[in-house]
Amino acid sequence: MQQFLEIRRGLVKQYPNIILLYRMGDFYETFFEDAVEINRLLGITLTSRGKTVPVPLAGVPYMTLDSYLARLVKAGKAVGIVEQQGDSTTNKGAVPRKLVRIVTPGTLTESELLPSKADAALLALEPPLGKKAPEWSIVSLVLSSGAFKAMSVAEEELAGEIARIAPKEILVPDSIREKAQAIASGALVTPLPDWHFDPEHGAEQLRHHFQMESLDAWAVSEKPGILAAAGAVLGYVSQTQIESMPHIRPLVLEESSRFVGLDAATRRNLELTESLRSGGGPTLLSTIDHCLTAMGSRMLRGWITQPMRAPEVPRERHRAVGELVGDSEKCEELAAALRPLPDLERIASRIALGSVRPRELAGLRDALPQLSKLSKAAAGCSSGLLKAAAPVLEPPQELSETLERALLPEPAVTLRDGEVIADAFSDELRQLRSLRDHAGDFLTELEAREKQRTGIPNLRVEYNRVTGYFIEVTRGQADRVPADYRRRQTLKNVERFVTPELKGWEDKAIAARERSVQLERELYEGLVRSCSAWVERLTEASEAAASIDALLSLARHARDMEWTEPELSGQSGIVIRGARHPVVEKAIEHYVANDCELVPGRRLLVITGPNMGGKSTYMRSVALIALLALAGSWVPAQSARIGPIDRILTRIGASDDLAGGKSTFMVEMVEAAAILHQASSRSLVLMDEIGRGTSTFDGLSLAAAIARELADRIRSYTLFATHFFELTQLSQSCAEVANVHVRAIQSSGRVVFLHEVREGPASQSYGIAVAQLAGVPQRVIREARSTLRELEERSRLSGDQPDLFSSPGAGAQDEAPDDEGEDAEAQAALRLRDEIAALDPDSLTPRDALARLYALIELARGGKSA
Ligand SMILES: Nc1ncnc2c1ncn2[C@@H]1O[C@H](COP(=O)(O)OP(=O)(O)OP(=O)(O)O)[C@@H](O)[C@H]1O
User: Fold this and answer.
1) Residue 448's CB: how many other CB atoms inside 10 A?
2) Atom of ligand 1 nearest to the CA of 594
């Protein structure tokens, strides 16, 4: 108890929710409140020990530790594992024990406890530090692969990045604990004292861990926020892993500007990796993921959650997919080599941790020839990406040989009873095993000899766990045994004896068994140490294999679903022929493909049409095609030309956040505000039914003003679905706005959805017809129709239709007229800029160029602003 309390005392301050699993022989015991807690959480029987002051106690068998660990960590507990040190039988007094590891959600490395197709990252967040670090710093570490990454992001992008990384645990300075809780998106928030986040100390830790003189090579020396967060991560890992520091790869500084910005709402709305349906439904990832290995699935997840702004990398992927789509034999060859591969990335990382299990090493041994096959298949490809993987995949010969020589063909699951190392690996082991293996011969020979010496025909040499080896004779014969027989046990019908020879042999045999187990342990540890020299190469090979797997999966989907290669163009805009929604097209039989043209001069499409007509599906299909193209995939369309995109922003669906104190309308406006702040002329924006959460005129006015802001000032590419039919008038006053509608026909009072997107506004609204379809009682439908007729009539007679859209800015009475003048100028300038951008430099005549220049000068002259 004294020992237990001492170990525990040092921990509770930092880990208030820790449970100590305290090794005692074949069990991990818990005491006091830990025992009560584990009884509550896992239903482990609660007992007590000690007469004067009973101590609550609950224990789990040590063999089953993993399954309990998983459940405790899932319940948000930190679990401290205390092991016995040295040999319990030779120690006097309490066995020495030591805390060997603290397991938290972000520091799990056991393959069985990790989701196989996603990473469980540990994250550290450092808030802005003033001028030198005006943004948030994010550092993430995936312990099971060693991936160590850093990024600085603006406040409004923070939640989106956290949603992308989907960490299991977030370390934050204590001072921002509450703020972190609000954006943690399900991860455990672990506050640390603020001094854990110290830039100088962080830099020192990084230099020390990676044995570097300077951090300049990683471009983080001047980033105090990142140094602070990285230091916190390293400190936390060494504190929780205690004895074995994991393999951590060099810190990679990711520029958030390299990737298409996707905020948390967009990731959710587009159902990239999580379904919006409460019970879970298909997602983009689950639809396109046909990977043969878990590593491949994780890679593919990374690609689609982090599409790229620059076209080079996705283009290379398109090319590789193209090669695979056209060569099914090559696909089969690659697939055959990939299929049997174990999770090399995680095995490599467990080698570094020293916790790799014998079966995992054997899996690695068997996988190496497969890697070689994969490498050969990749070398025969023509696309750059596949070809480049070949040399990286070639497995190190020396590692193959070492593992072949060291391990038994099928080693035991654990080291506990040996049977892991091959005979040929150690002479001593071979001799010890031979002693054991020939025990049978010795015993049969002894039995025959003793029968003859004593003249007792039914004498037998036997063994049981309590007595060990003995010679058994019936009681009737017992007085015939020789003088050197020593009595061990007397039972009803038999007497049991040992002889000095048998005892001597037994001692030797037991010693040999113990020694051989001990020796195997030492040899195994040595083997793991020697393997750690290859961790780096194995990790690289696993990444290359994962990429091939992901490409193969994309190719297979592209071929099966008849997707096409998109064109990533430098020309601004999005032009898609025959767009389909990648998830919906799999779910329904006759998907109606639609076109979409968002180009300079036509930047905002107002989409009208009945509910259920397919507006949301259409908008999402466009966003998903753009996203897939920039992630490197082919796309569900006849053709697609995607220009530069910096962000995809969406405001879809009404969900309220009552717990967070926000009403439906408030959520809607907060999201709209975020979009208006973030969007640029290179953003793709989806707006679904904005403004419907308030009174009609309020909502309509807001929707109109937002659409105008997006089209005219921000000039983003926007799909704007609405039930405010009045918004279709916007196109008359805004040059950038066009109308499209989803087609439906009404026959005998019922609507039929055609799901076709056509130019122009919808001709009528179908709300009542859809309500009828949904089964609203006839009486209510009749009454609604009559009210509608009345309203329409009244508005026609009084002419009170609000004319919000006749001229730009009309209705914005509090604005100074000057602003409107500037506005028109700005618009003219922007239009000119677009025109210039759209010019083809190769066919541009000097006359054209001069004409544009003069126009610019004219504009500048007439301008009022400095
Ligand atoms: N292009 C299409 N081809 C075939 N079916 C489609 C197509 N688009 C949508 N659908 C079907 O119509 C259903 C309704 O589509 P969607 O949710 O996009 O309608 P909506 O116009 O956004 O409706 P609301 O205005 O009520 O939100 C989808 O669940 C899908 O099954």
Assistant:
1) 12
2) 1
pLDDT along the chain (866 residues), means of 10: 85 81 89 89 85 86 83 85 73 79 84 78 90 87 90 87 89 89 83 89 90 80 90 90 79 87 88 84 94 94 95 96 94 94 90 87 92 94 93 92 91 83 86 79 88 89 84 88 88 89 85 84 91 91 96 96 96 95 92 94 92 89 97 97 94 59 74 88 92 75 90 94 87 91 74 83 73 78 80 68 44 38 62 69 73 72 62
Class of the 427-524 domain?
Answer: mainly alpha
Copy the structure tokens of residue 407: 């391990």
CA of 248 from ligand 1 middle (Å) equals 47
Contact (Cβ atoms closer than 8 angstroms) between residue 802 and residue 724: no
Instruction: Tell me what ipTM this predicted complex has.
Output: 0.97
The domain made up of 284-404+527-560 is a member of CATH 1.10.1420.10? yes
d(CA 726, CA 701) in angstroms, rounded, equals 10
**Residues within 6 Å of ligand 1 by CB:** 584, 588, 591-592, 611-617, 742, 755
Q: Please report the atom of ligand 1 found closest to the CA of residue 587.
A: 31
Q: What is the CATH number of domain 567-765?
A: 3.40.50.300
Alpha-carbon distances, residue 208 vs 90, 233, 351, 543 (angstroms): 39, 14, 21, 27
CB 206 within 8 A of CB 234: yes
**Measured from the CA of 580, which atom of ligand 1 is nearest?**
1
Q: Which residue do the tokens 């593992």 mark?
A: 403
The structure tokens 């099966």 sit at 560
